[in-house]
Amino acid sequence: MLKTENKNRLIYALSLIIEAKFDASDWTKLAYEIDEVDAIEGHNRLIRSLNWGDPDYTQNVIEVLKRIGRNTEKLVFIAEKVNLEGWLQARRPDLYKELFDDSEPSHILDENPLDTDSFDVTKQISRIYNSLEEDPELALGTTKEMIETVLKTILSGKAENLDKLEMPELIKLVQSHLKLIPDDVAQANKATDTVKRTLNNLGQIVIGITELRNAYGTGHGKVKNESGLKPYHARLVVNAGVTLARFLMEVYQDQKK
């Protein structure tokens, strides 16, 4: 939940994401969307300084946001529109902690599929689904991080040099340390082979996540929307990644009991 008590910090955070993402057409659409044509189009330097890359653009953005911010609800609307929460989590965790209350995280999923005391994945799940439409590259990067966290949590204390292992190696190790099918299941060996085969296929999706993330995801100097990656591309690998993580963590937790 966005905290609006410190309006100046909210305006500052919005100025950062707007500078990173907005072009002139974004400003125009926003002006009419929130009924702030005078504040935005009436500012004599805002669009000009943006188009010409002038050093006073930051100052102009803040001036416009301060004027809009006389109605706090409009700042909240802008924050939701640009996915301020997901952007700050990935790029400015210090500001994220100031402005967002983690006690009431938002989820696309009905429940957290990776509920575990071993690490906190609520923020990761929220970041993934909050960023999926607006920033598919961020969703890919966060999915990869989530799966790595799940795998390394399961392998904690069971293997060494985990940080040096690639994703396929981590998956193979996890399979060797988990009993995928209980012994009392009929034809347990055959069932185990089937599950392993399925996990290996899911592993190929994980490799795909890695390749997509390396090409388009966060952490490689990529600029948002430069890749042309669409939300439906990210949704494919994100949903597969959550499915893989859900299964492995449920097996892991069941065997910890």
UniProtKB/TrEMBL annotation:
InterPro entries associated with the record: Abi-like_C (IPR026001), AbiJ_NTD5 (IPR040508)
Residue ranges of every copy of the Abortive infection protein-like C-terminal domain listed in the record: 168-249
Domain of life: Bacteria
Coiled-coil regions listed: none
Location of the AbiJ N-terminal domain: 5-91
UniProt protein name: Abortive infection protein-like C-terminal domain-containing protein
